[in-house]
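Notebook p. 47: complex prediction with KE4.
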Amino acid sequence: MATSAELMDRAVKVIPGGVNSPVRAFGSVGLTPRFIARADGPYVWDVEGTRYLDYVGSWGPMFLGHNNPAVRAAVQEACERGLSFGAATELEVQIAEYICETVPHVDMIRMVNSGTEAVMSALRLARGFTGRDKIVKFAGNYHGHSDCMLVAAGSGVMTAGVPDSAGVPAGCAQDTLTATYNDLDSVRALFEGNPGQVAAVIVEPVAANMGVVLPGEGFLEGLRALCDEHGALLIFDEVICGFRLAYGGAAARFGIVPDLVTYGKIIGGGMPVGAFGGKRDIMQKMAPAGPVYQAGTLSGNPIAMTAGLAQLVELHDHPEHYERLEQAGERLFGGIESLLSEANAPCTLNHVGSLGSVFFTPDAVIDYTSAKTSDTARFAEYFRFMLERGFYLAPSQFEAMFISTLHTDEMIDETLAAIGEFLS
Ligand code: KE4
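Predicted complex, structure tokens below:
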């Protein structure tokens, strides 16, 4: 089998940057990306046959670890009946009913094929429902790569150091207003500066694309109140948080009811699925029921729906999975907290549940500006140190660590030992 280096040499000749998603190129950590050959449980193996304990989990979907037997069996069985029909199927009804019955703030839901598509569609719906054009987002929040969201985006764009993407027309950016995360005054000012024009506020209820940044006391409640006061919709982008921070996502964990919510990752069980859902009167505006158009050849694909439904049923019927993730998160991030303190390291740790980030800055990280004070060169050293010892972290300071239910206490303790060695 070809080595990662050989594959990268070939890849860059036929794929821009050699990858189908920029963060995978390992650009900010100065390494040739490891080409992954297979995954199972909490592990991935690269084409050289090296095994890593996986703290990326495909950027979130692998809540139950890779190759979950229930999900795999359901997918294998579904493949016998064909891969795609481009027609209505019972499976789409089943997964939509399941989510609407088990997630209180979702009356109706529409399946799409990625988180980007879910956000893009939810924003169009908010604009169609309110008749307003402007959207408020937060610097450092990433909501996928639709034009109007690539304005002071986080995640890959932030890592690439390009605050706005080339190719985004000024006409798109002008209707996207950027506020400061955890700063309600910055949101209030945008509402007051654009009276009656803001269709929606979209937020990562726990930010995970500038690294993990938690909502401060009252922040989400304040967004809810401001949206109500100004007649705008509150959209929770739960592509990462959804079904991870609780079965009902951050909305359930923090007790806030958004008007619309976007999903991805976990909802697909590893297959390409995104979704947006929320209040019936809003969702009913979507074609063909209403005037807001959106469509997709592979939306509701039977294999993807099978994987997603199998994973959601496993998560909903076994709340012990969430108990385990909380325990694992406490063990890992509590352990890192102790190590940073013992080493008096100029680092900050943000974490909630099974999500967390070590920032290489002594400052508290509460927003995009403070996240950017991180020493990305030092993060790259940390990433390389951990990779050499068999721990596969997200290859960017501005991403998150993801734990699965299959990360055992022993594996977590081994991770902590390696981090402790790096800090010493
Ligand atoms: P996708 O289009 O990549 O499925 O979802 C976009 C998206 C939307 N909203 C949030 C909160 C997200 O985190 C994402 C995508 N997350 C990144 C990881 N930070 C995906 C990894 C990548 O870009 O390769």
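Notes: Residues 21, 23, 59, 114-116, 119, 142-144, 155-156, 204, 208-209, 237, 239-240, 264, 274, 399 surround KE4 (CB under 6 Å). Residues 156-163 have pLDDT under 50 and may be disordered.
Next step: compare against the earlier run before touching the bench.
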